[in-house]
Amino acid sequence: MTTTFESEPGRLFIGGQWLEATDGARVDVIDPSTGQVVTTVAEAGAVDVDAAVRAAREAFDNGAWSGLSGRERGRVLHRVAELIRENADDIAALESRDVGKPITLAHAVDVTNAANDYEYYASLAWSLDGSARDVPLNRLAYTKRGAIGVIAAITPFNFPLILAGSKIAPALAAGNTIVHKPAEETPLSALYMAGLLKEAGVPDGVFNVVTGTGPVAGEALLRNPGVDKIAFTGSTATGRHAASVAGEGLKQVTMELGGNAAHLVFEDADIEKAIGAIIKGFVFNTGQFCMGGPRLLVARSVYETVVGILADAVPGVPIGDPRQPETVIGPMAGERHLKKVEEYVELARKEGGRIVCGGERLDLNGGYYYKPTVIADLTNDSRVVQEEVFGPVLTVQPFDSEDEAVELANSTPYGLASGIQTTNLTRAHRVADRLQAGIVWINDWPMLDPAVPFGGVKASGFGREYGPEALESYTKVKSVVVSLD
Ligand code: NAD
């Protein structure tokens, strides 16, 4: 069953109204599987962003949302989860068209996780409790948790629905109001969700969407004095800038930034099982996955065996039209991403890398396809190893000891995720402890759930999404001390 509500008209959503940009500007949205324009959306300028922040401020101050109890907000968020599930086919089709995601994965991963996000925080909204504190001098002290105010949510192109939900659901559960700026390339599910949230009962002005570019709409949002917190997901370069602007304005921030995770395969790993996780870890979402595992580190004794299995298995992973249910790898989300991957693979060739498979575009329907690529024998200082390629590219390096494996794994500026393949339980826990990463998967890749916090260390950022940790990050604590004399 699908519900009919006003959605995806390609206009800005401000104060509960669908509006054109003040200057009438619009921008094309491209289907990455064909390179053709599918629709256009309004391109917000600074004036529009300011209107959205004012609407969010007014809605926060009037208490129509922030004044509800947590459990009342939770009921609305439960309805959001239901509506996502009722409209799963439409949402998956939209996300697939916008990002080039294989339709089966858009359903199983993006839509399912988004619904789970809202359901999870709907439940946690019941537990926004303070606590009593034991204090001397005949006083009673207690704490209360309240919303922060207006949240600027800025999200990247690769998981538009999920990464918006991981901010919007906890921020709304805590009673905040929001201005969401999705990535310019993939704005469609954000607009759809605006209609869906309204239908579920989120009051006007509580959730606003401004589609537009980073340098104009994003920058205006970062600098707007009406914003209380910046929840940013994107590249490390933009995150550094966003954090410094937030610092000037003394705004709270969470920064979910780039990644370049290592996947360690020890000689005692169950290689047959590990291969599935290794391949998933670098082809999932066409490698446009901050928590993907693009750096494979393999014990020297099994190095050539693993490379040989990958050479046979990887070319067989179904790549092609994302609308076909059997497709596992779709196109890159945009031409600039495709070109970036091409440049990195050329660089790897120059750096002495052995192309085990792939290493070229796939010519199909004018789309932005790149064959899944495995590159062996690069040295650790190679740029392709050290930098975030963000495409379906796996580098493979050997190691001779556990210490060397850990040293190589921790040797890039990033620290978002990491993985270990071993059947030795003691080693698994010991190495997990030593890896500089916000999440470590053991004999698995990648399992994400709203109950499990994720986020980075080092250049991958700070703050956590998911879990009660995320809900807390959208609240502020007030202490009350009462004299009992
Ligand atoms: P990006 O940094 O180019 O853009 C992210 C968002 O920031 C977009 O909405 C963009 O319009 C906006 N933006 C750009 N310039 C801005 C400015 N001056 N002011 C304000 N906003 C601005 O990132 P991207 O290419 O869209 O996404 C890919 C990156 O995101 C990768 O580095 C990936 O690792 C990272 N990522 C991280 C996580 C995580 O959870 N840590 C999740 C997904 C993606």
What's this entry about, in short?
Helix content is 39%, strand content 21%. By secondary structure, the chain is of the alpha/beta class. It has a seven-stranded mixed β-sheet with strand order 14-17-18-13-12-19-20, sandwiched between helices.
Overview of this structure, please?
The protein is an alpha/beta fold. It has two domains: 268 residues, Aldehyde Dehydrogenase, Chain A, domain 1; 188 residues, Aldehyde Dehydrogenase, Chain A, domain 2, CATH 3.40.309. The protein is 39% helix and 21% strand. It contains 15 helices and 22 strands. The protein has a seven-stranded mixed β-sheet with strand order 14-17-18-13-12-19-20, with helices on both faces. It has a six-stranded mixed β-sheet with strand order 9-8-7-10-11-21, with helices on both faces. The longest helix has 22 residues. The protein is globular, with a radius of gyration of 23 Å. Bound molecules: nicotinamide-adenine-dinucleotide (NAD). The site of nicotinamide-adenine-dinucleotide has 31 residues, from α7 and α8.
